[in-house]
């Protein structure tokens, strides 16, 4: 029959024939010579949602607001405008004073001593059940700085969670709730994950619980940090999805949704997930020790370009080029030299420079390892004892009894922890005042701020000290973006922080 069809066939009939042909063959392979193609329909995610959905949780974090120490204002000195601002946007109870004879419902009742600390919402994220007895995996930035962590299950039960440990370098955290019989996820094999494969995410974008989005794996081994080869996808990820699972078509979790690439603060088609094999390695240490230990050898490295590889006779661009060795470090003791190219560690190839810190970091401190280096036209093997990388500052645990209170020179707000500048720093920068960013969270980072930046003003309010910063945060409208004037090196710039992002 096909031999009777020719280019004179009416286009309508030809279209009908082709349509009927496609629908009739479904997913039957079409063979043309040596090439084989398979027609497939779009995947159905309904069974995956039913299978994995109950394992995904909503995570809310709270932080303490010191009602007696906000910009030096107490209940006897606030005007009506300030009282209303604190009540509406921060949930801080307002005492019954002559200026406020009829306090709102949030105010403490007569005869009750006001609590010196009140909790206010800090952020919303996602997580998923790792074990049936209550261990939950999420992102470190979701729980960082939280005084209290609340976990809500899909059946609407809510639990107060304890932070078992958080690792900022990989952005992995483990929290624990007192519950049993929970539906735990199945962990997938990341090595089986293929580019182009369908994947699904479940989380709480913008606080919308149990939202499901889907897409494909765009790339693997995407280098965006020293310790993580991220999974890149085009799955829609937005603020609130952080910490939620990336799920393959077998219903297995293959990653933790962690980051997006964005110029607007919202999803732009590129998102990144922490590979589950890396996350499990970190989570096991957090559950055992509360922190992660990593190896180090004490070298500063850079990539090996094609030009460098050809000029030194290495043949191809591979390995990590050493440009500095820390005196007394393991690399120094092992006889490594600046200019060496490390191409293997314990037989594992270093294809690119970022492979080295990851492989060394995953090696247990105290381990005796073998490095293969390329030096002056020849390969050489050196024995080295891996040392321990200096532990990072741990994320603050909620409800810790031995937690030290913040000093008068440190304050939090807008996803920032800032400290006063020293006189020497003011002199060096040639400025009269400002506060230095000590650490920052997701929304401040997305705005383009970095550790070490000096904030000069918030919303046109000059910031000379941390008390000015605290006062500016109290006065701002939390429903609107906040402009921040900051100094970085010799340049002064503006950033726009969106508090609800």
Question: How would you describe the overall organization of this protein?
Answer:
The chain is of the alpha+beta class. The chain has four domains: 2-38, no CATH class; 44-67 and 115-293, Thrombin, subunit H (Beta Barrel); 295-388, PDZ domain (Pdz3 Domain); 410-497, Pdz3 Domain (Roll). Helix content is 18%, strand content 35%. The chain has eleven helices and 30 strands. Strands 24, 25, 26, 27, 28, 29 and 30 form a seven-stranded antiparallel β-sheet that branches. A hairpin with a 4-residue loop joins strand 7 and strand 8. It is globular and about 65 Å long. The termini are far apart. The model is unreliable at 1-28, 30-36, 67-79, 81-114 and 393-409 (pLDDT under 50).
Work out the count of structural domains: 4
First-last Cα distance: 61 Å
What's the shape? globular
Count of helices? Answer: 11
Mean pLDDT: 78
Strand share of the residues?
25-35%
Short description, anyone?
The protein is α+β, with helices and mostly antiparallel strands. The chain has 11 helices and 30 strands. A hairpin with a 7-residue loop joins strand 10 (198-203) and strand 11 (211-223).
Properties at a glance:
501 residues; alpha+beta; Thrombin, subunit H; Pdz3 Domain; seven-stranded antiparallel sheet; six-stranded antiparallel barrel; 30 strands; globular; disordered N terminus
